[in-house]
Structures are given as C-alpha cells and as structure tokens.
Amino acid sequence: MAMAVDVEQLTEAEARAELARLAEAISAANLAYHTLDAPELSDADFDALKRRNLAIEARFPSLKRSDSPSEQVGGAVAEGFGKVAHAVRMLSLENAFLDSDVAEFEERVRKYLGAAALAFTAEPKIDGLSLSLRYENGVLLQAATRGDGEIGENVTENARTIADIPQRLTDAPALLEVRGEVYMSHADFAALNQRQAERGGRTFANPRNAAAGSLRQLDANITAARPLRFFAYAWGALSAPLATTQIDAIARLNRLGFQTNPLTVLCSGPDEMLAQYRKIEAERALLGYDIDGVVYKVNDLGLQARLGFRSATPRWAIAHKFAAELAWTQLEAIDIQVGRTGALSPVARLTPVTVGGVVVANATLHNEDYIAGRAAKGSPIREGRDIRIGDWVQIYRAGDVIPKIADVDLTRRPDDAQPYVFPHTCPQCGSPAHREPGDAVRRCTGGLICPAQAMERLKHFVSRGAFDIEGLGAKQVEMFFHDEDLPVKSPADIFTLAARDAANGLRKLKNREGFGETSVKKLFAAIDAKRKIPLDRLIFGLGIRHVGEVASSLLARHYSTWPAFEAAITHALPGTPEWAELTSIDGVGAVLAGSLVAALQNGPERAAIDALVAELDVQPVQALGRVDSPVAGKTVVFTGTLEKMSRAEAKARAEALGAKVSGSVSAKTDLLVAGPGAGSKAKDAQKHGVKIIDEDDWLALIGQA
Length: 705
Fold this sequence. Notes:
By secondary structure, the chain is α+β, with helices and mostly antiparallel strands. It is built from 25 helices and 24 strands.
C-alpha cells in the first residue's frame, strides 16, 4: 500500500512546507481533543502525524519550527473553569510505533547516560483524561486537568466524586501531587450511553470522550452520577521522595490507597519491554477499558533526574502505541485553504466515515504533487494513482491529525472523473500563486492584501502561545475582520478597539447582538491586560514564517529586550556582526534568520509591527535556569569529544544553570569547553581571547565534579 512521500525523499523546501502543515494540523487537533473534548481524529492518527513531524525534524534539524508540535503539550484551558498553575509541568510523551523505535529509545538513553544496561518499567497507556491531585498533610486540596501542561482546569469538586480518588491519605509526604488518568470502563460507558439515549440526552462517541466530558461538568452533581475511575501512575511536586525507583514508587502509591495498573512490570531491556508490549496487546480486548499503547520509563529515579526533559517531553520515557486503522469512503470535493504564510493547502471533503470510533469528514491532500500521485522528485506514490473528485479513497488514520488518503480504488472510479487541476491563483484574493523551484507548496503572492493570510495571522496572534487574549478567539477575529464599523485588520487594531468603540456613536459594540455592556468591558479589560507582554510571546505572535514558540523563546532569552532584538534584526544582513550573532544562537539557522530579517526589514510589515509595539509594554525575558550559578547569563560553546557526559546532557545542564549555549565562537563567547579533538572552534576562541577549559574544569565550575 503506497503512503505519503517518504521523509527521506523530501527536499528541504518540501520538508519546510510539510512541517508548516503539520504544525497547523496538530494545533487544531490539540484544541479539539484537549479543550473541546471533541476529537476529529483517533489517537493513532494524531500520533502518526507527530511521528512524521519528528522524523522530518530529525532529518532537517535546521528547519525545526518555533511552534513545533514536538515542543507543545495538550491544549488550552476551557472557559468556565478556574485556572490552576502546575507546580511541576505535566508533559506529554514521545511516541514509538515500531520495535526499532523502542530499541533506538533504549540505546539513546544509554548513550546519554553512558550506561551499559538499564531497567525500565512497562505499563498500559490508559486512554483517558490526565488529572493531577494535590494533597497537603494527607488531605486532598486540589484537582486539576493537564490543560496545556503549565495551566490546567480546577476540577476539585468533580474529582472528589470519583470513588478511586482517596480524600485523605495516611503515611504520605506532607506535600504529594499524584498524577494519573481518569477513564470509564466499557461496561459503564455502554450503560451511560443507554441511559442518555433513553432520556434524549447526548450520547458519547467513545469512553475517553465520556470520561473527559463527565469530569469537566460545571455541575459536580452530574460528574457524581457518571461512573468514572482513576489509575495513578506518576507524581509531580513532592516534599519527600516516594521511593528510589519507578516500580517502588508505584507500589507506594498503591499502598497509599490509589488504584495502580496490575500490568505494570519491570523489564531489563528492549526484548523484555517488547515481550510485555505483546502480552498487553494480546489482552487489550479483555481488559474492559481502553488503552492505546504501553509506556516505558527508566526505573531508576536518580537516572530520570539526570536525563531530565526536553521542552515538552521527558527523555526517560516513551509511549509505544498500538497500530492504526484504515477505512474506505468517497471523496466529494477538494477545497483549497490559504494559510497565514500564503500556502495553498488542498483538503479532501469526504463522505463521513467512522474509524476507530471517530467520525472523519476531512483529509489532507498535502500538495498538488500528492494529488497527482507523484513525489517531489517525480517518483510515484500510490503506484502513480492520482486522486480525483468522486474517487473511493482509503483513509489512513495513523498518518496525520487531519487524516491522509493512503490509496485509491480505481475499480470504483466514476467514468466522468477528471484529473484535478490545481489552481495557479489564490482563491481568496486572486493573486498569482507561485511555486518556487524545489518547493512542494504553491503560495499566494498577495501578502498583506490577501484577506485569508491577514485573517490567519490575526488568529495566530491571539492564539494560546502568543497573546492569548481571553474572549478574543478565532470566531471573534473573523467577526471583527469583516466589521465595517470596528475593523481589525492588523494586531495594532486590537489595542485601539476600545478607543474606536468609544467614538462610535450608536454603533457601539455593547449595542450589538451577542454583546452586552458587561461582556464588552471584559473584552476590553482582557485586551488591556495583554499590553504588558513578554518578549518571547510578542515575537511568536508576529507570525513570522519559521519562527515558532521554541525559536521565539531562544531569541528572547538571547536578546532579552525588544530594543536589543529590534536593533539587531534591523541591521542583520549576511556578513554583518549582527547576522553572525543571530546565526550563532544554537537552534537558529540561516533559513529562520533570513525569514526574521525579511519581516523586520520589509516596509509595510515593519510599519505594522512598529504600530503594534507602540501599543505595548514589552517585558524583558531572562535566560532560563538559576541566576546565581557561576555560568548564568554567559555564552558557552562545547567542542570536541566529551568523555563524562554526552553533548546533549552537557547542553541541558548548562541551560538549566542559566547559560546560553551557542553553536559557534565569536567575540561575545564567554567560555569554550573543549574536549579531545577540538578543532577550528578552539582556534577561533584563541583568536577572540575566549577562555578555554576542559571537561573536568567545566564540571568543577558548575559544582558537579
């Protein structure tokens, strides 16, 4: 069965376009799954999309977006619940799909630690809703959903109604944050849906949706009437350790009164991990509750601490997911969507089909080559079968958050079906849509005159990772964008909205349908609250191509203030000191730098940015990590072979101590840590008078000798 263009066949331009598409699709799926409890895709489909994203990032690390899905966790907090800041972030897990992925994970962890062998736990991955329970002096004080990993929803009263959640603990640490999964058994789910149907209420698509919808009721009495269960498998903030190993900590949670999964076992390596995966997979249908894979974790908690975290996932754990599903349906139409960077993205409109309990009505078609049945370099995909309106197509739900079409049944093709002709003009503004050599995506050249691009950039501006203005979401952006009296065409217009409304006579916002005096006051207050904004959120909110959340954070930590950032980017051209400094930031490549410079040196776009900044109080961003460490704020470069830790671990430790890790040496470098085999970077350091130390001196400096 032919699939999408293989990652190894992608050109750099195609990979860049694919990463943009994946970022948008995963963001939409996160919103549907975590915030709305109404997923459009199965977990397998979602996971496969993230997997493809990671594979492309691994092959093209310089193309990694700042809004990369690999750096994101969960979704935004829904309206109607109080917000809870997690003392310890609730992260998601990296995914594995093949046996080789598990072996690579184990090898990667061993290499990071320099260990010959390691033990891992293996446990079923429950398909439910993540929940954090905070106990102080043995008393349950607070329960919160994961939310976006940093901020969750306060569902304390609802959680108190779940029988599996103890109200009081004995012999527990003074502070204990227990984490686990709220779920619903198959039998209870069927009975609930039957009751709902009998009284004309809403029925649920699957147990996960039923559990999430039940826990997130504003009326705790409704939650109490729903048969929810809870498995504990992790912890957050602690006043004292539960144990020294993962397996013993889980046993301790069980002794404290929590339900823990009896299929959790200790494994000595990949072979035993995979054997437990096969065992759990074989028992899956008989468990009586939904699982979607097996989670492996390094057993030694001390080693977990050494391994630490990436921005969105721990290095010491991985989720081995079960296989995905397929379905056939008919393609009714092909629509072209225009994104904020001008990319023309074809979307298949399908006769709705249920796959794995989720109704699918749309599928991505990637680009014009994919529709035509060919890869970027002309090699065939789907054995060269093109896709036409009216075709019966096979949906591969493990492909993307928005499912992809895996194959076409030519025996059922209508006689009058014609090859699809991809548009060469923008369907929104009529501007030419060009496809640059080597690029898989055709882009509208209309820029700011294209209403689709302008609106999508505004939606991005108010999104969760950017300004996150309460009460001003995608729906409101569309309304204001088309409003004749109070138009919002650029980000700066948002911050002049109240002043323009005050001078608007009888057409004031409070007098319009859907608004009232109270709601308008709340909206304007929410807008004013975001006038004070951290630099990283401002940079991300600008919606510059290739500049996502991760890159925005890197840039903000490096330049700290808007004046410093603005001055540097304004003067950064290849060959200048400003350009050298920009591209020396670890994680910022020439493509990202060029996109950033192009935006701030483009007349109309720069004018829009200046108008926005004039309305804001941009807050400086400090480097991450301890401010009292001997390397806080210093720029460090590692070169040569490190013998006592991997390069990845060295970088992680340095950043945790507040240092800036750079990929190249310049006059602004403070320290070069040189191992055996140091080459040109050592010579550059000598030329610039940069202090050079070896690995032992580095460990002594940071107090880890």
